[in-house]
Write a structure and sequence with these properties.
mainly alpha; Sodium/glucose cotransporter; two-stranded antiparallel sheet; 78% helix; Na/solute_symporter; sodium; Na+/solute symporter
Length: 479
C-alpha cells in the first residue's frame, strides 16, 4: 500500500474514532437517544449529518463518471434533487419535525404507522426498508472498494476495512457518534472536492488547448442534453430524487433530531449552501474529465465508475491521498446512517423492542452491515444505478407520507388499507423491473413514454386516492 495513503487513512480513522468516542458524553440511555439524539441536536451538527448522509460516494465517483459520460445534463438531474429537497424540508419536513416532537418517533416506519394508526403498515414499511436500502448501502461500500484500489489495496480489502469503520462508529454512541463523525466527514468531503477540482483545472490548463477542447466538447453534445438524456431517461433519473427527502429513512430520521424550530431552519439553510457547492464541484470535475479525455490526457471510453479512479492515479500521492480519504468519508457517512435508520425500524416495528434494549440495536446493526458488505463483494451494478434504484423501490412511500402528514388524525380504515396496498403494489412493480431488466435498466426503461418510476408513483397515488374516496363515501353515508 502507498505509504502516504496509509498515513492519510490512519489519520482519518484515528481522528474519526476519537470524535465518535468523545460523543459518548452526550449520553445514550435509551433507544430515543441512540437513534434520534432524543431531539436534542443543534443546527450545525444536524446540517452536517444531513449533508454527509445525503451526499455519498455517488457524488465523487458516480456523478463524476455520469457527467464524464453524458455531459451537463447530469447537472439538471442533480439540481432538481437539491431544489426539491430544500422545498420539502422547508414545508412538509418542518411539519414532520413538529409532529415528531410530540409523538416521540424514533423510526420512519413508526412515523408512517402512527400517522395512519396502523401497526401493520409500520411493519410493512420496515420490511420495505430492509429490502430497498440494501442496494444503497452496497453502493457506498462498493465505492470504498474502488477507492482503496488507488492506495494499492485489493477491492476486497477496502470492503472489509470500510465495514469495520462503519460498525465501530455506529456502536460507540449511535446517532451521536454518527452525526459528529458526519460533520467531520462532511468537512473532509468538501475539502477533498475542492482539491480534486483545483487539480483537474490545473491539469487541463497545462495539458490541453482549452479553446479547441471546448469547441469539441460542444460539438459532441456534452454542453447540452446529450443523446443519453432523452425525456424518458431524464424523468427516470429525476423522479425518484424529487421525493428522496420523504422516502429514504436515513434522511427522514434526520428530521427528528433538532432541538427547536430555530435549529431546524438554520440547518436547512446550511444544508442548501453545502449541497449547491458540492454539486457544482462534482459536475465540474466530470466535465473537466471529459475535456481531458478530448485532449488525450485520459481515455475517452472509461467505464463510469472508473473515471475518478483513473484521475486519482494520475495525481501526486499526497493530493490523491486526501481526495481518496474524502471519498471514503462520503461513503462511510452515508452507509452508517442507512444502517442506523433501517436498524431503528427493525428495532421498533419488527422486533418491537423496549426503549432500554440497546444490545438488540447493536446486533441489528451488525447483521445489516455484514449483509451489505457481502453483496458489495459481488459488485452489483453501477453506483449511480444502485443509488437511484433504491429510491425507485421507495417511491410508494412518497404519496403515503404526504397524505399521512396532510391528513394526520383524519384517516380511516380504507385509507390504511390503501396505504398498505400502495406500498405492496408500487414495490412489486419496482421488483418486477429489477428481476426482469436488472439494476442498470430498471429505472431507464419506459412504457407508454413514461419510466417505471412514474408508473410506480401514479399507481400508488391512485390507490391512495381510491382509499380516501371510500372513506369519504362511508362518512357521507353515516351522516
Amino acid at each position: 500500500m502507498n505509504s502516504i495513503h496509509l498515513i492519510a487513512l490512519l489519520i482519518y480513522f484515528t481522528v474519526g474514532t476519537i470524535i465518535a468516542y468523545t460523543s459518548r458524553r452526550m449520553g445514550v440511555k435509551s433507544a430515543s437517544d441512540y437513534y434520534v439524539a432524543g431531539g436534542r441536536m443543534g443546527a450545525l451538527l444536524a446540517a452536517g449529518t444531513y449533508a454527509a448522509t445525503t451526499y455519498s460516494a455517488f457524488m465523487m465517483v458516480g456523478l463524476v463518471g455520469l457527467t464524464y459520460q453524458t455531459g451537463v445534463g447530469a447537472l439538471g438531474f442533480e439540481l432538481i434533487y437539491l431544489v426539491s429537497t430544500v422545498t420539502v424540508l422547508s414545508t412538509l419536513g418542518f411539519r414532520i419535525w413538529k409532529l415528531a416532537k410530540t409523538r416521540k418517533w424514533i423510526s420512519p416506519s413508526q412515523m408512517i404507522g402512527d400517522l395512519y394508526g396502523s401497526k401493520t403498515l409500520a411493519v410493512a414499511v420496515a420490511f420495505l426498508y430492509l429490502f430497498a436500502m440494501i442496494p444503497y448501502t452496497v453502493a457506498q461500500i462498493q465505492g470504498l472498494g474502488v477507492v482503496f484500489q488507488v492506495s494499492g489495496l485489493e477491492y476486497v480489502h477496502g470492503v472489509i476495512l470500510g465495514t469495520l469503520i462503519i460498525l465501530l462508529w455506529i456502536v460507540l454512541a449511535g446517532i451521536w457518534s454518527v452525526a459528529t463523525t458526519d460533520l467531520y466527514q462532511g468537512i473532509l468531503m468538501l475539502a477533498g472536492g475542492i482539491i480534486f477540482l483545483s487539480w483537474t483545472i490545473s491539469t487541463l490548463v497545462q495539458e490541453a488547448d482549452i479553446s479547441k477542447v471546448l469547441e469539441t466538447l460542444g460539438a459532441q453534445g456534452f454542453l447540452g442534453l446529450s443523446s443519453f438524456w432523452s425525456p424518458q431517461v431524464f424523468l427516470a433519473y429525476t423522479i425518484p430524487w424529487v421525493f428522496f427527502a420523504v422516502t429514504n429513512p436515513q434522511v427522514v430520521s434526520r428530521l427528528y433530531v433538532h432541538k427547536d424550530a430555530n435549529s431546524y431552519k438554520r440547518s436547512v439553510a446550511l444544508f442548501s449552501a453545502y449541497g449547491f457547492l458540492y454539486t457544482l464541484i462534482a459536475i465540474s470535475v466530470g466535465i473537466i474529465a471529459r475535456m481531458l479525455a478530448i485532449g488525450g490526457f485520459i481515455p475517452g471510453d472509461l467505464p463510469r465508475d472508473s473515471v475518478t479512479l483513473s484521475l486519482l492515479k494520475l495525481m501526486t500521492p499526497g493530493l490523491s491521498a486526501v481526495v481518496s480519504v474524502s471519498i471514503m468519508a462520503a461513503a462511510i457517512s452515508t452507509a452508517n446512517s442507512i444502517v442506523l435508520a433501517v436498524s431503528s425500524s427493525v428495532f421498533k416495528d419488527i422486533l418491537n423492542r423496549e426503549e432500554k434494549s440497546l444490545r438488540a440495536a447493536f446486533a441489528i446493526n451488525l447483521v445489516l452491515t455484514l449483509i451489505a458488505s457481502g453483496l458489495a463483494l459481488l459488485k452489483l451494478g453501477y453506483i449511480v444505478d444502485l443509488s437511484v434504484l433504491t429510491s425507485v423501490f421507495l417511491l410508494p412511500l412518497a404519496p403515503v407520507t404526504v397524505l399521512g402528514v396532510w391528513r394526520h388524525g383524519k384517516l380511516s380504515t380504507a385509507s390504511r388499507i390503501a396505504a398498505i396496498l400502495a406500498i405492496i403494489t408500487g414495490g412489486g412493480i419496482g421488483f418486477y423491473g429489477f428481476v426482469t431488466y436488472g439494476a442498470a435498466k430498471t429505472f431507464t426503461m419506459s412504457y407508454l413514454y413514461l419510466p417505471i418510476s412514474a408508473w410506480i408513483l401514479i399507481t400508488s397515488t391512485t390507490i391512495l386516492a381510491l382509499g380516501i374516496l371510500v372513506d369519504g363515501l362511508r362518512l357521507k353515508n353515516k351522516k
